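Below is one protein, fold included:
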Amino acid sequence: MSDAVLFEERVADNGARLGVATLNAPQTLNGLSLEMVDLLDERLQAWARDPAIAVVILQGAGGKAFCAGGDLHGLYASMREHQGQGPWANPYARDFFEREYRLDYRIHTYSKPLLCWGHGIVMGGGMGLMMGASHRVVSETSRMAMPEITIGLFPDVGGNWLLNRMPGRSGLFLALTGANVNTSDAFFAGIADFRLDSADWPAFCEDLLRQPWAAQPGGPGSGNLAPRSINDGLLRQALLAREPATPLEPGPLRQHAFLINSLCGSNRLEEVYGEIATLKDHDDPWLARAASTMLAGAPGSARLAFALLQHTRMRSLGDVFRAEYVAVLASVAEGDFQEGIRALLIDKDRQPRWRPATLAEADEAWVQRFFQEPWPQGTPHPLADLGQGI
């Protein structure tokens, strides 16, 4: 059995080292398992402490995806086992989401430059890994999305932090429709910083070995007072040196930004939902597909995504993860998440039976259960220390 994550340390010409972590489950599009989460988190902590490690690179094996999501099969089995027992009764779900969110938070706050190579499909849990990286790199193959509405969930893994910071109302539109974002729109939406052609990736990795990396005191090149800023700059220069000359054409999210802002301008979900629904027969296939995906998705997910975006709008990153953790445990217990996985991956009939079945049933009173902490009274939040120097 192959290792779920491959780790390598490459030695640069000046003796500094580059830490490379490769998600190694191409047969499942590098879907993120709990084992992978734990392996990554342990190694990232070790590399953060190692003064010789100048830069960390996170990539996925195979050519199709960086990471297309999380361990839906494992979560489905745990939901079946603990069905009807309440949000705090599922130990696998509690562990999976706590440790995944901790890893994502660590990437957001990592002490060294961390480059994420977002080639191919980047969805769900893959977005959680990528969005916090200091250098987010896409290619001509990148397709990014948070399509959780299709499986009865909501954009988590810090998604509310990201979506609330997108231009205009585009974040709300993407949350409700799960629409794919191409390479060009990744820059418009603020979820990419650099781009490389896929064919140039191996040569770029070789370029990195020739950079004069600074290291922390005690490592190669020690004695510099600000190695982080130097290495950020060196990594940026290396990326810009191989930036493709071909300009990017505006993607559909940017092309339709005015329309999206108009459709999503209301503070009432019912009005926004109704406006987006009018796009289902639009001449633009991207808009039509977005509307159709929303209409086929879980009405409860639409309500929860909308409510969470409002609830977390001005919150800290740690508070966002804490709110998402409460909501995700409720989602595990409520039923739509289990039903969405069943329809997509287990029975594969693509005919989910959502409960609530309509947006009117998934009203503002119904969604309040997703904001109620499920653990025993007096127990601290499992993510209470996020933001406290973890």
About this structure: The chain has a mean pLDDT of 95. The chain has one domain: 5-371.
